[in-house]
Amino acid sequence: MGLNNLVKRLQDIMRNDAGINGDAQRIEQIVWILFLKIYDSKEQEWEFCNDNYVSIIPEKFRWQNWAVDNKDGKAMTGDTLLNFVNVELFPYLKNIEIDENTPMSQVVVKAAFEDNNNYMKDGILLRQVINVINEIDFEEYKDRHAFGEIYETILKSLQSAGNAGEFYTPRAVTDFMAEMLSPVLGEKIADFACGTGGFLISAINLLDKQIKSVEDRKLYSNSVYGIEKKALPFLLCVTNMFLHDVDNPQIIHGNSLEKNVREYNKEQDKFDVIIMNPPYGGNEKEMIKQNFPADLRNSETADLFIILIMYRLKRNGRCAIILPDGFLFGTDNTKMAIKKKMFEEFNVHTIIRMPHSVFAPYTSITTNILFFDNTGSTKETWFYRLDMPEGYKNFSKTKPMKREHFDPAVVWWNEKKEINIDGFDKAKKYTIEEIKQRNYNIDLCGYPHEEEEILPPMELIQQYQQKRASLNATIDKILVDICNILNEE
Q: Is the pLDDT of residue 473 over 70?
C-alpha cells in the first residue's frame, strides 16, 4: 500500500476526532503510533539475532500485545483502548527507568514520549488509526526502505517553518553537501540541530554503499550523532534512523547550546564530519550566551552554532554548514570576531552561493554553503555561484530543487577554476590577505541582475536590520580610523 494513500486514510479518520486540531497534531499522532509499530518491528529483529535480548518495554505494553487486531473481537477499542493509552501506556513510557548502561536503542523510547501526547478522544477512531498503520509490513526489507523514502516526502509536505528559522532542507542540498564531504565508515558524523535527520540520512546513504562485512554494519549503526531540541522532529529523526537500519541511533533530545563550549576538550566530544543547517533568525537567552567566549557571544542562533562547531570538530575533521547571507556580509564586532577565528584556525576552502527560493515556501532568505576543515589556517577561499537552472525563475513545491541542479558545482569542484560571465565573477579565488582587507566581508561572487523580490514583512525587517548593523559597524570603524589619524597629527 502506498503511504500517500495511507496518510490520506489516516487524516480522514482523524478529522472526525474532536481532540485533534489541524495537520500539526495529526502528524504528531501518526508519528508516535508509527514509532511504536516500527520499534516493535526492530525489536523482533534484535530478538531473532540475539537470544539474550531483553526489551525495555514490558510485555503488556509491546505493540504486538495490545495494538494488533487479530479480527477475533478481542482487540481493545473504545473507552477501554483510550483508557489503556492515556492511563497506562503513556505514563509508563514517559517514566521508563534508564541508567548509564542502558543502550541508546532503548534510551530513545523514553525520550520519544517525554514531550508527546495522545490527542485523540474517540477510542473507536483510535482503533481505526492503529489498524490502518498495522497494515504496513516493516519486516520486509525492501518495503521498509521504500517506506522510508516516501516517509521523508510526507515530512516535507506537512512540515512548515518555525518561528526560529527551522525548516525542511531539500534532499538535493543534503545529498550534495554529504557527497562533497565524502564520509567514510568508521568516522563519527554529527548534526547539532538535526531536525528530522535529513543530513544524517544523506551521510549514511553514502556509508551504506561501503558495507562489506558484519563489522562494517556495526560501524554503520554507530556512525551518527544528532541533537534536536523539539519533540516532534526528534521523534521523526529517531524513527527515520530505525527505518534506515541505524539500530543504535545516538540521537539526543536536548539543546546543543546548553553546555559550555570550553568543556569540549576530550576526543569523544569531537567529530570527524559535521554537516548541518542551523536555525537562524532566533535569539538565545542570556544564560545560553554565557556558554561562549565573551568576544564571540551573540544572540543570533546560527553564529552560536558556528562557534560550537569550531570547538567540536576533530583535528583533520571537515564541515559543511548552511548560513544566510547576513553571516557573509556582517561586519559587526561579534561577526568579525567569529569569522576571524574561523579563518585563522580553520581552512575555509570553499563557499557555494545558492540561488534564492531554495527553501521555498518556508523562507525567501538567500543562503550559502560553507565548507571548511580543521587542517590549519585558511590560505585562500574559493567562491562559486550556483545559478538558477535553465527554465526556472523560482523553486517551489511543484518545482523543487533537484540533485542534478548541483551538477555544474560538482564539475567545478573537481577542477576549481575562475569563471567570469558578462563581467561578473561566477567563481573566484580570494587570498586570506584580500579577505582581511575586506574586514571579513565575504559577500563575493553574488548574483547580478536579480529581479527585485518582495519579501514577507518580518524577513524584510530582519534583512534590513542585518544590513544596517553591518553598515553602522563599517561607519564606526572608518570614524575611529579618521579620529586616530587626526590625533596623530
A: no
Backbone φ, ψ for residue 373 (5° rounding)? -135, 165
* Helix (H), strand (E) counts: the chain: 19, 10
Contacts of 118 (CB under 8 A, 6+ apart): 29, 32, 85, 86, 90, 126
pTM of the predicted model, to two decimals?
A: 0.84
Cis peptide, bond prior to residue 361, ω within 30 of zero: yes
Q: How many alpha carbons fall within 13 Å on the CB side of residue 409?
A: 28
Burial 385-414, CB ≥16 within 10 A → b, else e: bbebbeeeeebeeeeebebebbeebeebbe
b/e 59-82 (16+ beta carbons within 10 angstroms → b): eebbbeebbeeeeeeebbbeeebb
Segment (H or E) for 315: strand 313-324
pLDDT tens, position by position, 66-94? 999 998 988 999 999 999 999 999 999 99
Instruction: Please compute, for residue 290, the number of CA atoms within 13 A of its CA located in the half-sphere on the CB side.
Output: 3
CB of 302 within 8 A of CB of 323? yes
The 10 Å Cβ neighbour count of residue 181 is 24
User: 201, 220 in Cβ contact below 8 A?
Assistant: no
Q: Kindly report the CA angle at 345 between 344 and 348, in degrees rounded to 5?
A: 75
Q: How far apart are CA 475 and CA 366, in angstroms?
A: 25
Q: Which residues of 93-107 are buried (b: 16+ CB within 10 A; e: fewer)?
A: beebeeeeeeebbbb
Cβ–Cβ < 8 Å for 368, 328: yes
C-alpha distance across the termini of the chain, in Å: 82
Neighbours of 478 (CB within 10 A): 10
Condensed to tens digits (0 to 9), the pLDDT of residues 392-432 reads: 888 877 788 999 999 999 999 999 999 999 889 999 999 99
Counting Cα atoms < 13 Å in the Cβ hemisphere of 454 gives 0
Look at residue 367 and give its three-state secondary structure: strand
